[in-house]
Amino acid sequence: MFRQALLAASRSGGARRIVETAPFGRDVVRRFIAGETVDDAFGVTQELTGQGLLVTLDVLGEYVGDVRQATATADHYVELLERLGGSGLGTRAEVSLKPSAIGQGIDDDLALASAQRVCQAARAASTTVTLDMEEHDRVDATLAMAHELRRDFPDVGVVVQSYLRRAEEYCADLAYEGSRVRLCKGAYAAPEAVAFTDRAEVDRSFVRCMKVLMAGKGHPMLATHDPRLIEIAGALAVLDGRDAETFEYQMLYGIRPQEQRRLAARGDQVRVYVAYGSEWYAYFMRRLAERPANVGFFIRSVAGR
Ligand code: FDA
């Protein structure tokens, strides 16, 4: 219920103004977000890759209002990728792209053309793109976009959210040679008709999906901070005879950083999702919704304690 309220607030203009003008400064937000500029993102990327971690960079912003904004977002990604390529970080850092940030739902042809442009820039920088998965009503369109992109860019990653009732079916379809699939629980509010709403059911679905992906021929990217699921992933890797380079763990910047380093130190691939930019509000609210303790942290910061 509380989670639903926070997710509803993530889409509310009024709540946005309150959070953005609260006197807690940028400190609380900075726990989850690398900063507002490309330089901030590069600083964090260098620090993380120096610790043996991989990175996926996300330019904050979603559900843009018009074609001009959508094109500007794609341009920003292209510039970011040119810089990644120039710095040689392309082998350690890829990008995550939200279809709604490049015009999906406003002009789908433009969104696809922009995604192709970003994929081309990623290839030139020796790296890859993963399409984030957003609200449940965008799943079919995003899977179709990934399918289309994979004709020319077979390394484009796609996301399956285990809270979706069809998650296991999506995984079975996507577990083919070369297919990069990120599995996560799902961060949005979705109705019971299409999604499990009970946390234990979402976790059980995650395990079923992991089994399919780890036994399959693709490259699973297991995006969770959940200790039990990470342990099961390790057991499945042994059971399915997977070497460390054939799959990866993924976590968000600012969440369980010690665990990220522990897994990397034992030889596993760990990729950290690093979000940056000025449009941090919706992303930040989803992070609050994931863990009630974060709200307490936030309120204490606002109160100046
Ligand atoms: P769960 O929420 O049960 O958390 C398990 C434990 O992790 C908690 O007990 C706590 O210790 C820690 N934890 C989790 N979230 C925390 C937080 N916000 N603050 C502090 N501690 C926290 N979703 C989506 O719908 N589409 C997408 O494309 C993506 N992409 C994506 C990429 C990557 C790399 C990650 C890690 C996650 C996503 N997600 C996502 C978000 C995902 O769906 C999910 O909401 C979060 O990962 C939280 O779920 P957990 O699996 O960590 O479990």
TrEMBL record:
SUPFAM superfamilies: FAD-linked oxidoreductase. It holds the Pfam family Pro_dh. It catalyses: L-proline + a quinone = (S)-1-pyrroline-5-carboxylate + a quinol + H(+). Its cofactor is FAD. It is an enzyme of class 1 (oxidoreductase). Residues 46-297 form the Proline dehydrogenase domain. Pathway: Amino-acid degradation; L-proline degradation into L-glutamate; L-glutamate from L-proline: step 1/2. Keywords: FAD, Flavoprotein, Nucleotide-binding, Oxidoreductase, Proline metabolism. Its EC number is 1.5.5.2. Transmembrane segments: none annotated. PANTHER family: PROLINE DEHYDROGENASE 1, MITOCHONDRIAL (PTHR13914:SF0), PROLINE OXIDASE (PTHR13914). This is proline dehydrogenase. It comes from Actinomadura yumaensis.
